[in-house]
Write a structure and sequence with these properties.
The complex is a heterotetramer, with 2 copies of chain A (357 residues) and 2 copies of chain B (391 residues). Chain A contains 11 helices and 10 strands. Chain A is of the alpha+beta class. By secondary structure, chain B is of the alpha+beta class. In chain B, a hairpin with an 8-residue loop joins strand 6 and strand 7. The longest helix of chain B is centred in the last third of the chain and has 29 residues. Classes of the chains: A alpha+beta (357), B alpha+beta (391). At the A-B interface, strand 9, helix 9 and helix 10 of A face helix 10, helix 11 and helix 12 of B.
């Protein structure tokens, strides 16, 4: 038995950390958030493509590296509260792959970083199990209104969930209307898309459901891994700050009440680490257990990150509430990731379903 | 035991409500969503509102008539604060001046100081901000290092203050500065300093909500006149501490009113999204209602004690922890129950017109930090209420 | 406005405290718990009757003193984790009173301490809103099986909720079978009662419902007040113990993490005080608000006492887990009172109902 | 990364399960509900069970063959503990001897000591209890004051120990006693002391569950032979600390197995009372399942690290806090969801035959206190894992 990553994956993780610390540290992330209208760093996206990162969620035979590698990279993305559509593109690329040959042209362009494609699925602004879809794609014509499409205003193509299945809609088609839907996470860009025009149905009802189940699992795992990274880094920032900051003549990190809070932050974070990597390993090696373990990982990592990143703000005191210090970047992203990719409420239900309850 | 308001107090509330209905042009929530506003114009809305309140005699109500007050009881003041929240009125821009500096001048200032500063403060002709906290002294306020050195008829002030709420729009700042480096408490003096002078620079601090209500204020040999010292040299700490206690209790009914309003929005939201019947949703709503009612019960108790002439001792630490920690739970529950809708900021096309949960979710994080963090409040409770030993 | 009790009630409260500290301190309570087969001190019950305490829940015109007085006495009972059927007898006496003249003979004997009468209502061992009752009282004959009747094995009479209304069943009637149902609270004695024999219906369906609503409100308020007393005393015990107990050469009460926990215990306890007395005051003076405020008081005081009394065990360390030290008496009673007299779950629902939600 | 058990480990588990199915007469839950048992006869059931385990070679599995072991890996030991819980087997009465004293003798004892004590310990012919804690030194163990004074071939021990689990049924006690009053750590020595002698008195301590598994032990000039000192004089503290670390990790899979079993009972209970479909009940169940699975993930990780030869550092504090705090939440949730039924003790007519929630609810309070309270564990994490500064 071994919990630590093997050498290859360790290397991948370290490489990712080096790259992100260099290219997407909190100053860079802040610049993207404040200035880039697209909400991401196009040059960095191209670098990620070049280094093969955009193929990460594909099956191994198509250039992917399995769930453990995916988790390791996502973990690092979480550590920098990475802004941009990286996960969204991975999920779309996997769906395009699974949709079969017709979709592989777009898949290849997405993986090469030539086209930005995301999934467009949600039709309600509530956190409810999706009811009947209204989006339809009949006779090559798409009619759809989708909510909170990630980076939808700047995508080159969307893969749309419709009543008939999954449809590719490339831009600029006529009838592509995007309305920005800014959320409290200033570094994630969502949009309402109103689509009316030609599109290509690439997977019918049943296959589409199977594809989306795979995507949902990968999404939940990836979000959980990012949440782990957020918690880990938020705790590190807190330890560093409280060791420096003094009150009553001593570092505030020497106060026992604060120490106990940090101990609880560690408990939550380390437990997230165990849960996330065990789920990832199960996806690769123990598929029968994976549904439950992925849901468990996200259902733990989400509330844990909310709590840990919230504590990071609190224990930073006044500066924790400022834009200038980093804790809010982590807190906001924790909130986004907890609410999306299967909210905690949905994951809890999924855990029960996985047990037949 | 008697938790009822008197006939006079009820009459005061009725009059106030009529006045508010007639005079408040629109609720604050509508103002801040008006796209034609920017931060500066919103301050002007608040300034105008303060003048309306002042003209109607609702500001500084508890002060002597001579200084614009009407000797109102603490209960009436609490009713005022409660109804202002219920009506979603703008907060007056000079709230720190009125809550803290006003009482300081009335109790510790000179006649000249009162005459010079109070009328303009009430009329919002001069906006005040507070210069107590420093970057190096948050929880440990007495360790402040901003220094004031005598220079003829003036003192020259050098140092840095933070969390100067409304700093960017202020005309004056009241400052605690060190006049004796050796005497931790007795070496602090309370100065009134004009901001529009070469030695003072105010910078905005951007908050995690994206707004910049706070500022930091840099003093580089800024001039304060000797006659603008409140109390005597070296009395600053004592004055600041008593003044910080004066206004406690007056907000005691405002917090539950504020959060009760927000809570109604959550209830409406789950009704709209069809989940009001779900047992998990019902449990979460019920817990919020319970906590809110308990907060109100605590508030009534504090108010009753104040009305009975007891001082609001360190027990006010309990109230501070209660409302600020509740605010976090409430906004988190709102986000959980209302779903992605509640993530949208006001600029979003589908943002709901009633409650800005995205902002409240972030803003609630400040409550447990400012005015003495929850950790400081727990220290106070342990030491001063429970009398637990120090090592 | 005044939150403090007026002089009469202050005196009543102080008198009750003196009496209970003298007659029912933790040693006496422990003796009752360990040795008295009835589970209560008969002599003390007689004293309570003599001093008028058993009339406390009656309307004021019948010798009661209103809800604030009731709360004040219950508050004191909680402070000693009073063992015995005091509250149960009060509730029965009020029901007997409200049932009208036919029941006033028994009421008077109960109030005089000559007969021990309790209510027998529950038919399920689950925490569910009562479904159809099976107990019946027709033609002067009672057939009933009731669960968890407080002190049911030693009652002289029971007032039984049946399909037809409230029926008095006096013992020894034939067909009175009591099976002890010991619970984790060693100082409360419950029994299953199987009753089959003559009984007197004293209130029909609709009046019975009204009577039981009144009783439920008083029960919830009384339980909440006792829960307040439990918390208050558990915190006092904790403060005293931790101020004496040393570790690493200093009193453990000087550790900041422990201080913060005690601060939270105080917050919960003081908030319970505010909620309980406000609810009691509303019952006396603001009946329209009382339903909600009573449910709020119990829904707060129950979880608060569970938490505070649990912390009392924890902060006592090893001795907190021993029979010899007192914290467990408080913890167990907190659990009983939270689960009965309308569990927290039921009170939360009652809060919503009171608001029409 | 590899979280799978090897073929050999899986085979070990299969054999063990067959052996348990064939040899465990009845689960512990049935034993303790058997009204013909008293505390003493239950101890005899446990003693008999220990002998069965020992005869089958399942005790001290990790020790050298010479001392009854089979050099089993930590993974196999963890599998053993997990399956014992799953089968609801009785706990062996000599668990403290086997977990703590055995390793101490093997690593630090003399050849004679091993030969004299280990076989009888494994065979449950001599039951051991542990004499570390004292009334005045719980968290701060090194402040212990029980003293040992040389007296010819003996030492005379005087003082008091508490929480001597199984004390009332023990034949021997291993004791930390002070041989040098001046040297806080280096003045502590590790003694083996027979209980059946005039200078030793064991009293039962009644627990809040009503049971008396613990004892307190009074020493009044009790004799311990010099040859029964483990290690050298003054080495007691070091030996105790290393020994306390040895058996960490072996229980790592047992806790989730234990609580998973309890959890099944809650699920069955809500199915039976018809509330499995309620959204509030579902949420609470799901949270328990999530926490239990996370506990198992933590356990697998610890086990994998141990198997890879890494030592279970202070991270084991995380596991201790996790399972013991979880146990409290789980039992509280059980009481909330199962209603008054779960309040009944086993003597009650309607007590359910499967799970004794009334006892577990109380018993769970001990977990966060013994073997280093949650507070002590948080101190350890802060200091040794997070390396936070001391004042």
């Amino acid at each position: 038995m071994q919990f630590e990553l093997d050498e290859d994956r360790s290397l991948l993780k370290q490489q990712t950390r080096d790259l992100l610390e260099r290219e997407s540290g909190s100053e860079a992330a802040r610049a993207v958030m404040e200035q880039a209208p697209e909400g991401y760093d196009k040059a960095l996206h191209a670098t990620l493509a070049e280094l093969g990162y955009l193929a990460l969620a594909l099956p191994e035979e198509a250039g992917g590296m399995g769930a453990v590698s995916l988790a390791a990279v996502m973990h690092e993305m979480g550590r920098t509260a990475f802004p941009g559509p990286y996960l969204d593109v991975l999920l779309a690329s996997r769906a395009l792959h699974d949709a079969g040959a017709e979709a592989h042209g777009l898949r290849d362009r997405v993986v090469a970083g030539e086209a930005l494609c995301v999934l467009a699925r949600r039709e309600t602004l509530d956190d409810l199990s999706s009811t009947e879809l209204t989006a339809s794609c009949a006779d090559g014509r798409l009619e759809a209104t989708k909510q909170l499409v990630p980076f939808g205003a700047h995508a080159d193509a969307v893969l749309v969930e419709t009543r008939e299945g999954l449809a590719i809609c490339e831009r600029p088609a006529a009838g592509w209307e995007a309305n920005a839907q800014p959320t409290l996470d200033h570094a994630q860009r969502f949009a309402e898309l109103r689509l009316s025009g030609p599109a290509q149905l690439v997977a019918g009802g049943d296959p589409a459901r199977g594809i989306l189940e795979t995507v949902d699992r990968l999404a939940a795992l990836s979000a959980a891994a990012q949440l782990l990274g957020l918690s880990e880094r938020a705790l590190e920032l807190t330890l560093a700050y409280t060791a420096e900051r003094e009150a009553f003549g001593v570092p505030i990190a020497s106060f026992q009440a604060l120490q106990h809070r940090c101990a609880d932050m560690l408990l939550q974070t380390e437990s997230a680490r165990s849960a996330v990597y065990r789920a990832a390993w199960a996806l690769d090696h123990e598929p029968a257990a994976a549904d439950e373990l992925v849901a468990v990982a996200k259902a733990w990592a989400g509330p844990a990150a909310r709590s840990v990143c919230g504590e990071a703000i609190q224990l930073h005191g006044g500066v924790g509430f400022t834009w200038e210090y980093d804790p809010h970047l982590f807190f906001k992203r924790a909130n986004t990731l907890e609410q999306f990719h299967g909210s905690t409420r949905q994951q809890l239900e999924a855990v029960l379903q996985a047990r037949g309850l | 035991m008697d938790l009822a308001f008197t006939t006079e107090q009820e009459a005061f509330r009725r009059d106030l409500k009529s006045w508010l209905a007639a005079n408040l042009a629109r609720p604050w929530n509508d103002e801040i969503r008006n796209p034609s506003h920017d931060e500066n114009s919103l301050v002007e809305v608040r300034r105008a509102w303060q003048r309306q309140l002042n003209d109607a005699g609702y500001l500084g109500m508890g002060w002597p008539a001579e200084w614009g007050g009407r000797g109102a009881s603490v209960v009436e003041q609490a009713i005022l604060e409660e109804e202002l929240w219920r009506a979603d009125a703008p907060q007056v821009p000079n709230f720190l001046g009125i809550d803290l500096l006003g009482p300081a001048l009335i109790h510790h200032g000179s006649e000249e100081q009162r005459r010079r500063f109070i009328p303009k403060m009430l009329a919002a002709d001069e906006i005040w901000c507070q210069g107590f906290s420093e970057p190096g002294s948050g929880s440990d306020l007495a360790s402040l290092s901003t220094r004031a050195e005598p220079d003829g008829e003036h003192f020259r002030i050098t140092g840095q203050k933070v969390w100067t709420t409304f700093g960017p729009w202020s005309d004056w700042i009241f400052v605690l500065a060190r006049t004796d480096a050796e005497d931790r408490y007795g070496g602090i003096t309370f100065f009134l300093v004009p901001i529009d002078q070469p030695g003072v620079e105010v910078r905005s601090i951007r908050q995690i909500t994206g707004e910049s209500e706070f500022g930091e204020t840099f003093f580089d040999g800024a001039l304060a006149r000797r006659e603008h010292i409140v109390g005597k040299i070296g009395e600053g700490w004592r004055i600041a501490m008593t003044v910080l206690g004066y206004e406690r209790g007056v907000q005691t009914m405002a917090y539950p009113a504020r959060f009760e309003g927000y809570l109604s929005d959550v209830i409406e939201g789950v009704r709209r999204n069809g989940t009001l019947g779900r047992a998990d949703v019902r449990e979460k709503l019920a817990r919020l209602i319970v906590e809110n009612q308990v907060m109100r019960s605590n508030g009534l108790r504090t108010l009753a004690n104040l009305a009975a002439g007891e001082s609001p001792g360190p027990e006010s630490s309990i109230e501070k922890i209660f409302w600020s920690e509740y605010a976090k739970r409430q906004s988190e529950t709102a986000l959980d129950l209302l779903g992605p809708q509640a993530q949208l900021t006001t600029e979003a096309r589908h943002a709901r017109p009633d409650m800005d949960w995205a902002r409240e979710f972030l803003w609630a994080r400040a409550g447990t930090i400012y005015s003495g963090s929850s950790e400081i409040q727990r220290n106070i409770i342990a030491k001063r209420v429970l009398r637990m030993p120090t090592k």
